[in-house]
Amino acid sequence: MSMSWSAVPFLWVTELEKINVIRIGLQNTNVGHVAAWGQSEPAVVKNVKSDKAEPGDEVKYFDDVVMGATCIGVTAGHTHAIFSRQEGGLISFRVKGLETIEKVPTLEFFRAATDNDKGNAFPVTSAVWQGVSQMQRCDGVKVVYELRDGRELDGTVTPDEFILDRTDALYGTGFKGAEFAKSIAAVKIICHYTFYTNPVSDGEVAYRMLPDGSVECTGRFNGREGLPQMAVFGVNITMDKMFDRMEFYGRGPEENYNDRCAGAKLGIYKARVADNITPYLDPQECGNRHDVRYVKVVDEFGHGLRIDALEKPFDMTVLPCSQQELQSAYKINDLPDTRYTFVRILGAARGVGGDDSWGAPVYPEYCVNAEKEQRVTFTIRGL
User: Fold this and answer.
1) How do strand 294-298 and strand 304-309 relate by DSSP bridges?
2) How many CA atoms does the CB half-sphere of 38 hold within 13 Å?
């Protein structure tokens, strides 16, 4: 696997220290070998924002906000986003003219079954989540404009402030667009989903676009008593296959999970997306990284997306195939040719379990409880 990584060694062998290494029984150790390592995280320091503008701070404004019958277009610098009322979410995110997403992001509840999942019948008892992940339909969209004067406008129906007494010459919509854009501090779109589980459940994906071109994204599932455990909970983002490189700050370099991460160093790693497919004989869930602070998914020129954790670090996978394709493939050579890059940002992910190597269940603290609220928050930026 072609990866570069960095971590803080506990004991780094030098020529002067080699004599001491020999004394502890590592006689054949070469110079530069890491005999042991350890890491600790610094205390979290919260940034206190001042209400006063700092010297050099530049106030950013939206360049344009266009309300159509089915879509809302937002332009901020080199970033242009389109949110669809019909599709329920972000259908386009262009950065300097380059499209970075292929489909509307969706909520994710499913993973391709691991060998251990099969051994403890998890794919059977939680089969409902595979269907929910594949078949989703947004059944409600709410639009809110946060204004710089502190007010909020309900944009679900076009607010009066947007309507001109004449037809806009540029767009022909009769909306103010660029004229009103500088009054807007954020554009918020909340997309609601109903899931026909038993009992019926629901969730939402909320987008909040800011004048610097970034989009804060929050996925939420409202837990319901009586539902089986999920494999994961998060948001799935589909990109074109040309975005075939990744960099992340989290635990690595190899795949790791919440119950299999103590030996994974926290560092900055780079890899090709194709290398994240672990060549198991039976294709299954693979490539997860735990405790991730940010991930970049880019093309050969470094253009693409950067996704940063907001409330807490997330789990993530970046794969050249979908979970459904992994689940459907009988053997590794059955996987289809790469068409997309699938990025999953997960607020919760099931561990792998398997204390007896086959069938032992995952400990409760490493499971994803569908009876409780699940949530993930992150920021998307163009590169």
Assistant:
1) antiparallel
2) 3
- Asked if 188 and 206 count as a contact pair (C-beta separation under 8 A), the reply is yes
**How confident is residue 57, by pLDDT bands cut at 50, 70 and 90?**
low
Do residues 382 and 79 lie in contact, with contact meaning Cβ atoms separated by under 8 Å?
yes
Quickly tell me which residue has 């610098």 as its tokens. 77
The pTM of this model reads: 0.85
* Number of Cβ atoms within 10 Å of the Cβ of 161: 14
- Given this model, what pLDDT does residue 287 score? 95
Helix (H) or strand (E) holding 132: helix 128-134
Q: Return the sign of the alpha-carbon dihedral for residues 32, 33, 37, 39.
A: positive
> Which residue's entry shows tokens 């269907």?
131
DSSP H or E stretch at residue 23: helix 18-23
> What pLDDT score was predicted for residue 95?
96
Strand ranges (DSSP E) for 293-373?
A: 294-298, 304-309, 314-319, 340-349
User: What value does the mean pLDDT of the chain take?
Assistant: 85
* Cα–Cα nearest to 328, from 284, 287, 358, 279: 284
pLDDT at 262: 87
Paired with 192 in beta bridges are 140, 204
Tokens 């070469």 identify what position?
30
Give the rounded distance of the alpha carbon of 60 from its chain centre. 26
The CA distances from residue 21 to 9, 35, 39, 263, in Å, are 15, 9, 21, 22
Give the residue from 275, 287, 302, 265 showing the smallest Cα distance to 382: 302
